[in-house]
Amino acid sequence: MIATISQQDSASELVVSYLETITNKGFSGDTDATYGTRLTASTDNSIYQQIPQGVIFPKSEKDIQIALQTAAQDPFLSLTFGPRGGGTGTNGQSLTPGIVVDLSRYMREILEINTDEGWVRVQTGVIKDQLNDFLRPYGFFFAPDLSTSNRATIGGMVNTDASGQGSLVYGKTSDHVLGLTTFLVDGTQMTTNPIAIDKAKLIAEQDTVIGNLYATVLNVCLDNRDSILQKFPRLNRFLTGYDLEHVLSDDLQTFDMSRLITGSEGSLGIVTEAKLNITSIAEFKTLINIKYDSFDSALRHSPFLVEARATSVETVDSKVLNLARQDIVWHSVSDLITDVENKDMQGLNMVEFNAVSPEGIKDKVDTLCRLLDECVKNQTNGVIGYQLTSDKTDILKIYGMRKKSVGLLGNVKGSQKPLAFAEDTAVPPENLADFIVEFRALLDSHNLQYGMFGHVDAGVLHVRPALDMCDPKQEQLLRVISDDVVKLTAKYGGLMWGEHGKGYRSEYGPEFFGDHLFKQLRIIKAAFDPHNRINPGKICTPIESEDSLVSVDGQKRSWFDKQISVDVKTSFNNAMTCNGNGICFNYDEKSPMCPSYKVTGDRRNSPKGRASLMREWLRLQESKDIDLLEVEKQLNQGEVITWWERYQHNRDKNKGVYDFSHEVKESMDECLACKACTTACPIKVDVPTFRSRFLNYYHSYYARPLKDYLVANIENSAPVMASFSKVINPIVNTKLVSSLIKKTVGYVDTPTLSSPRLTKRIGKAHNFNFEKLSALSSAEQNEYVLIVQDPFTSFYEAELVESFIKVIIALGKKPILLPFKPNGKPQHVKGFLNEFKRTAKNAAQFLNSLSEINAPLVGLDASLVMCYRDEYNSILGELRGDFEVLLAHEWLATQSFKPLANKITNDTQFTLLNHCTETTSMPKAANVWQNIFSDLRLSLNTTATGCCGMAGTYGHEAQNQNNSRALYEMSWQSVIKKNEPEQLLATGFSCRSQVKRYEKFKPKHPIELLAQIL
Known about the structure:
By secondary structure, the protein is α/β, with parallel strands linked by helices. 44% of the residues lie in helices and 13% in strands. The protein has six domains: 22-281 and 517-537, 2-Layer Sandwich (Uridine Diphospho-n-acetylenolpyruvylglucosamine Reductase, domain 3), CATH 3.30.465; 287-405, Alpha-Beta Plaits; 412-501, Alpha-Beta Plaits; 563-703, no CATH class; 712-888, no CATH class; 898-1013, Rossmann fold (3-Layer(aba) Sandwich), CATH 3.40.50.
């Protein structure tokens, strides 16, 4: 049977009552106590997991005020809260056992900009890249640069006082905060900005909530000024928790409560708005990638580079570089970071200079290059070479690789994964190399693997030791290493938390600050939150409280994962390895990454969310002693669950009996199976694969909708229907029949079958004859091209296959149309895995039988061709064989078009929109098409787009219509509107169908255009 969650995992009656109460009081946002949503909010980018009791998604400041004011009254006084933004923290800052207040879903408005005074005012759910995209046309940017900038929120940056690349010049978030709006635990609104200290003293005299806060903070900061200045390290980056030093200006004339709240990790209140200083964009940039013979050489050379007055100096070690080489990201930087002949590159420093004019950096760059030339010539400082680029696009590509370092480190093989827990140490830059030598010795003494990257200009290096948290001994080792790193950083004049805040490392606060200063932090916490209800356990507890601080020994994700057998974890590795880095929350609408999350804003519908749900679902099966792999084996052998078990499950479902499996199913239903996660995610979380396995299992117990059977059998029914297209098309397109299909099947906008059908269009001249081909010599066979049919182009878009035949002939080759063999992709998408395996085995046998013929196999639909490469490998293993099916552009790239160019006079500027499967799996596909068009003296522009919203059958299902259209409008519509129909080309069948649905015309495939022109 399918396991359900236990009663103890359900939200408490008090929380349910609270959520109902705030809704009745006018809370306009979303409230959610479902287990799936709570699970999704139970992790961040750290090793910890804390399941909250509920999640609220406010839409306005009034919502937050209602939520907090209601909680300040009986019977809700025991409830606690934790604010949450992008969930990118590496130390559990946003994890809470109480109620999560998630500002990232709705509070994402940019409210006001003043370019004359150089500031912008935003809601704190605004994403860093979103803000910079808004500011760019004005010539400004928000300076702190994070590796997680495409999903980190301004609120998260404020609460952790985030910094990043270039902090030597641009500082931390706190250096750019001009004012904040914060709601205190009782719902009181507090607006803070720099004011004269005399005014602050007047406010402190008022007998109000805010007046008492000002009095407390003034007393602490003034009375302990000397101790604070003596204790706080003189580093570019350091996080104290409560920045007691900078609440007061150096001359003690200005008071700014915002400096206290910035970096407080949400423990003092909920920040809803921020007024931020913005910086003019330095248009001129040059990046020098310096290559070293060792990572130690790179570190020891970095102080010299800082002295060269660089804007930033970033570094990565050989482990990160080698991981990047194995990732899709490398294709974009491989020509910018080339290997040095006969040299082994073990470290890389990326040195950036920027200025508002080219003259502002020329001398600096020229001087550094001359010195580097001497290093290479004389073999000094470990420098083995360097490359220079001033192209801003190329610079962004390199930083894109650097930003992906965090995720790439998590994708190493084996059960030991690099973990964030002591990875943002900060020491004075001049001490960094010696510090790292000892740090490495510490890790080496425990025989640990690790990768390193970071901001050497600020003395911050990210070091992630690889540990298996499911191994009790290695989990204990995490504590040992943490303690030793605290001591080691102190020895070199730094601290353990240089960039990513304390979170679960808060227990080290008393040791760092000493009794007296830590007591002052507790006094401030008590003034803001006397009963420890806002992010309890982080930074410190109120002065009179006996509550404990969170600890590095806190509950980890591994506590849940240890309850899953090794065999199951291995089998479902594509879900289990998600490390929470959250790149699937990428806000960029032009990115193909996870369209279902983009359109719903619900993190359950992201690869990270689905992986979290799947992990818990696996754990629940094991908790009921269900041998999941054995059940799967039986199902895949055709054995079926008894009719009585199915009856019972469906009866319970119809009665509304709760089953966590239904929550997982709802999330999986939103997946478009686009497979962007399999490449764009640095961990390669593969949702479509574990989704199909889940659906296969789920529907062994619960009945399938009729549309699933229709989709799964489309490859068998399409050839039959195509023979009667003249009869079927008019009937299907009538309002009565289309309405009936929608009502009974849940399917809309049924595509029109090709008429005349493919066989009528091309006749018998290109029919397949195995004996005839086999009899030819290898050289003669190589003149042929074997076209692998798919159901979409052959039966719904036969004109494309016909066009491809014309192109093949124009290139002097001989096309052969292979017999149609079902591919099985639709079966896989809907989780008919037993049927899919049979289909795949049959198709593989046929395609392997052609291996002795020296002619390429070429298909036209990317999703089906990629299925041969991916899903076939997964389900067939060695039975898959070694056949290879190319996509059309892959084969065309091997042909010469230049001899045909003289015949062409077309001067149209064409625009290509690529299928999202091609974009993620074959990132250079668009470049191939550009090269082909260039050879033919044709102009082809490419444009970045996300998913069109059709994605096979997803866009045809009635339940998905709103999301399908929203995705189209989000990414494709603007490009379509900017071009004339005859200019537009699209490689995806689904994509062309989507455009036809909404724009009433169908873009050509590039092959159709080539056939027409040639």
